[in-house]
Amino acid sequence: MKDELDLYIRARYPLLWVVTAEEQRALQEIETLAQAQRKRVLLWSATVGLVNPATPDREDASRRDPLALLKTILDDKEAGLWVLRDFHPFLKDATVVRRLREIAFALGASQKTVILLGPVLKIPPELEKEVTVVDFDLPTAAQLQVKVDEIIAKLREAKRVDPSLDKRQQARLVQACLGLTENEASNALAKAVVQAGGVLSGAAVEAVTAEKKQIIRKSGLLEYYDNTELIDNVGGLETLKGWLRKRVRAFTDDARAFGLPAPKGILLVGVQGCGKSLIARSVANMWRLPLLRLDAGRLFSSLVGSSEENLRQAIKTAESVAPAVLWVDEIEKGFSGVGSSNVSDAGTAARVFGSFITWLQEKQKPVFVVATANDISNLPPELVRKGRFDEIFFVDLPSAAERTDIWRIHLAKRNRDPDQFDLTTLAMASEGLSGAEIEQAVVAGLYEAFDANRPLSMNDLLDVLNETVPLSTMMREELDALRAWAKQRARPASDREGRGARGEGRAS
Ligand SMILES: Nc1ncnc2c1ncn2[C@@H]1O[C@H](COP(=O)(O)OP(=O)(O)OP(=O)(O)O)[C@@H](O)[C@H]1O
Ligand SMILES: [Mg+2]
User: Fold this and answer.
1) Label partner for 127 (CA 20 to 30 A): which of 53, 143, 160, 169?
2) Does any ligand 1 atom lie closer than 6 A to the CB of residue 456?
């Protein structure tokens, strides 16, 4: 943030809004910056009024009132930075908003800057053009390293560090803290120590990761996954898997040195239950990167705060754990309101969508986005324009050969030896079924056999298949529309022929 803030202050932007829950860390950076620019810093909060940290005993409680405060700023003749902590609640007052606007106009040419500092971003429409939002990033690995080293040194003094804790484990500990604020990181470490009976050991890595999962989930839209899926458990989809395999080392320094850009992301469009979410989960495993899932459906839910801020926060977290995979599942659900006027807040939807698109296209940090969608009618066309994703893949119903693969995977998953089954016959009998439906057929067959007290047989499975009406038959028209759409815009995720809804390719 420092460089960005420095630039805005020098360029005399009058009103800046720094969004962060890390007040102390932000204040430190602001103060360093003010020193370099030889400017005084004046701090305000509703409790103490206006304080000059250089003469802290002379706090001015008469300036607790926001309007009086703003008047003081307006009248002050000297250069300075006014940092207003948690000022956002006062922006409900129309007079305060108006005053801030006047300040913005008046300060434009001066050496005075007002910085609103707080965890919430809620800009009243009157101020939208006047306020510049500055992102305060979560601590970097280097910054967390300092903190973790400090904590370890203190624990060492108290003889509370397991002697076997080595440099490599310490580095993993720092990695585990990525995505947390400094405070959250030190709390998570403290908790790990307590859990381990008062000693810091290598086991703290798992404890901190578990804590991080909780913290990230609580903070809104993201979910942190650490047990992801093996790519070997995905049947078929060879083109897509090959594309991913080719990029296993794409986030290494070697790849940068070779002149390769970091991959941006892929969009997986396709039929329900054919492995889109499954692939998303396995990419992270294949590339050995952390996986974060963004709940696009909740993006606009009023229960979790303002949509713009939620997205901002989610992006910040993802970037702080980068290199990472950000999985945006069912993206069309999040952005279906964009451009349609029957949504109550189409303006916000469009704005949030706009900033997401911009981020997709321009992001600098190595966050690989895997977005999935199965309803193209709700997919905003801007999303599929060139430059947003590296590639758009179409995931169709599995071909016969792919179905053989999928039968093998799911029989093996349920501890059955796939070679004891006639997989070719099963593949033929399951034409038109999705991977999810094949999995369900295996489970249903197991129930039959279990109920009859005998081992699972071919007949159990074939009986189940006889009674199954595939979703693809019921949704024939949607499927055709999806395929027509994909033909124009997407690359097939597998290159084999012979797939189709039940009945296709047979004399029917
Ligand atoms: N290609 C496949 N190989 C192995 N298993 C599969 C495959 N496709 C689907 N499955 C099984 O079906 C389950 C559901 O699939 P998944 O959630 O990935 O589908 P999806 O394409 O995301 O569907 P939706 O559009 O409904 O979200 C998976 O967890 C997996 O067990
Ligand atoms: Mg899915």
Assistant:
1) 53
2) no
Confidence of residue 191 (pLDDT cuts 50, 70, 90): very high
Instruction: Output the CA 139–ligand 2 centroid distance in Å.
Output: 32
Instruction: Give residue 277 CA to ligand 2 midpoint distance, Å.
Output: 4
Amino acid at 149: D
405-414: string of b/e by CB count within 10 Å (b at 16+)? bbbbbbbeee
* Residues, CB within 5 angstroms of ligand 2 (ion): 277
Q: Is there a single domain that holds both residue 19 and residue 122?
A: yes
CATH number at residue 17: 3.40.50.300
**For ligand 1, is residue 392 a contact (CB within 6 Å)?**
no
Residues 344 and 463 placed together within one structural domain of the fold: no
pLDDT in tens, 37-91: 999 999 999 999 999 888 877 777 778 999 999 999 999 989 999 999 999 999 9
Q: Is 56 exposed, middle or buried (0-12, 13-18, 19+ CB in 10 A)?
A: exposed
Ligand 1 contacts CB of residue 333 (under 6 A)? no
Of 249-258, 271-280, 446-455, where does mean pLDDT reach its minimum? Answer: 249-258
Domain-embedded: residue 236: yes
Is the confidence at residue 504, as pLDDT, over 70? no
For ligand 1, is residue 216 a contact (CB within 6 Å)?
no
Look at residue 291 and tell me if it is in a domain. Answer: yes
Structural domains of the chain, count: 4
Which of 357, 373, 395 marks a domain boundary? 395
410 and 377 in one domain?
no
66 lines ligand 1 (CB under 6 A): no
| SS3 annotation, 422-441 | CHHHHHHHCCCCCHHHHHHH
- Whether 190 and 249 map to the same domain: the answer is no
- 23: domain range? 2-135
Amino acid 220: pLDDT:
73
Give the residue whose CA is nearest to atom 18 of ligand 1.
275
Asked whether residue 253 falls in the same domain as residue 367, the answer is yes
Shared domain for 42 and 122, answered yes or no, is yes
Cα 413 to ligand 1 centroid, rounded to whole Å = 14
Model confidence, pTM = 0.82
What is the spatial distance between Cα 258 and Cα 84, in angstroms, rounded to a whole number?
47
35: confidence class by pLDDT, cuts 50, 70, 90: very high
Asked if pLDDT for residue 32 goes beyond 70, the answer is: yes
Q: 408 in ligand 1 pocket by Cβ < 6 Å?
A: no
Q: Could you tell me the two tokens for 333? A: 């659900």
Q: Identify the residue whose C-alpha is closest to ligand 1 atom 12.
A: 436
Structure token digits, residue 424: 């070719």
